[in-house]
């Protein structure tokens, strides 16, 4: 990619001036390429890892595994796959300036953290090892990954603020609250940077309708999955524990689906490379 900044990325600020101080600084175009590569590979890689982890626990675990945990692991691949697919779509929007680069960085970094957490859980379930030791090693590895990420990239901004021992409430709040794509597009629409041409509106409506269907199906799957956990649980608190573990994953999938859907409610980029065409391209689905 060219050395220019990623479209839609914020103007350089005090934290961007720290780029030269990093050990292996990544420019925004290089970071964008890295994020897209990881997101593309993770759809297959993380899904296979989920399936393999489930198989290992169900077939070769040395310790008896609670039925609720078994059910949760069986549903894990289907629970995470939509999030991986939506992450790819969000990175396409980031590339075109539809949302902040920080959002893409948070999603990809979360995938690395998820892999370590999954590894710690599988090791604990399969082998007779100390849960405290496994949890401690997992936390240390996650901290190392986060620190290494902060050493090469200025995104997300809240992570840079933590790594540099500075308090930047504005940047942290922007990541925690998450500015919706619809708000970004609304501002661009007011500036004349977006339009809803008739030839584009059909494609945009098709994408919105498809995402609405995906949202509904995922919601039905989430409710059904929670009911299954409640039915198979031997004790009521086992069911609550399984629901508490799986709910954040499903809520993330529902939120990200609505997040992308909002990107098509206020218009599309006023450019030759139309957003709808790119999201509907075979390589992006």
Concise structural overview:
With 285 residues, the chain is an all-alpha fold. It is built from 10 helices and 2 strands, in the order αααααααβααβα.
Structural features, described:
The chain is mainly alpha-helical and 285 residues long. It has one domain. Helices cover 72% and strands 1% of the residues. The protein has a two-stranded antiparallel sheet with strand order 1-2. Helix 1 (28-60) runs parallel beside helix 3 (101-126), helix 2 packs antiparallel against helix 8 (198-232) and helix 8 (198-232) packs antiparallel against helix 9 (236-262). The longest helix is centred in the last third of the chain and has 35 residues, at 198-232. The radius of gyration is 21 Å and the shape is flat. Mean pLDDT is 77; it is low at 1-17, 165-182, 194-199 and 267-282.
Widest β-sheet, arrangement of strands: 1-2
Decide which structural class fits the backbone. mainly alpha
* Major pleated sheet: 2 strands, antiparallel
Order of helices and strands: HHHHHHHEHHEH
Number of domains: 1
> Termini separation (Å)?
22 Å
How many DSSP H or I helices? 10
Spans of at least 5 consecutive residues with low confidence:
1-17, 165-182, 194-199, 267-282
Question: What's the shape?
Answer: flat
Mean pLDDT: 77
State the helical fraction.
over 70%
% residues in beta strands:
under 5%
Radius of gyration: 21 Å
């Amino acid at each position: 990619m060219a050395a220019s900044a990623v479209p839609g990325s914020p103007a350089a600020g005090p934290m961007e001036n720290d780029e030269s101080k990093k050990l292996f600084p990544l420019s925004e175009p290089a970071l964008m390429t890295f994020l897209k590569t990881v997101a593309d590979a993770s759809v297959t890689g993380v899904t296979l890892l989920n399936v393999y982890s489930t198989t290992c626990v169900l077939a070769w675990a040395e310790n008896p595994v609670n039925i609720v945990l078994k059910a949760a692991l069986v549903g894990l691949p289907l629970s995470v796959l939509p999030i991986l697919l939506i992450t790819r779509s969000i990175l396409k929007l980031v590339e075109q300036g539809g949302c902040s680069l920080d959002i893409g960085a948070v999603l990809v970094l979360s995938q690395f953290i998820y892999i370590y957490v999954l590894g710690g859980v599988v090791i604990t379930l399969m082998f007779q090892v100390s849960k405290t030791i496994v949890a401690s090693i997992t936390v240390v590895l996650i901290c190392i990954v986060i620190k290494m990420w902060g050493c090469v990239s200025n995104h997300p901004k809240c992570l840079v603020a933590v790594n540099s021992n500075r308090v930047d409430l504005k940047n942290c709040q922007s990541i925690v609250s998450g500015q919706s794509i619809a708000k970004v597009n609304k501002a661009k629409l007011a500036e004349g940077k977006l339009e809803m041409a008739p030839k584009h509106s059909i494609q945009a409506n098709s994408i919105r309708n498809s995402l609405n269907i995906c949202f509904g199906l995922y919601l039905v799957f989430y409710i059904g999955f929670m009911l299954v956990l409640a039915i198979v649980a031997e004790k009521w608190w086992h069911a609550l524990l399984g629901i508490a573990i799986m709910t954040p994953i499903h809520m993330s999938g529902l939120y990200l689906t609505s997040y992308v859907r909002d990107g098509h409610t206020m218009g599309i980029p006023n450019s030759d490379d139309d957003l709808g065409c790119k999201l509907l391209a075979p390589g992006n689905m």
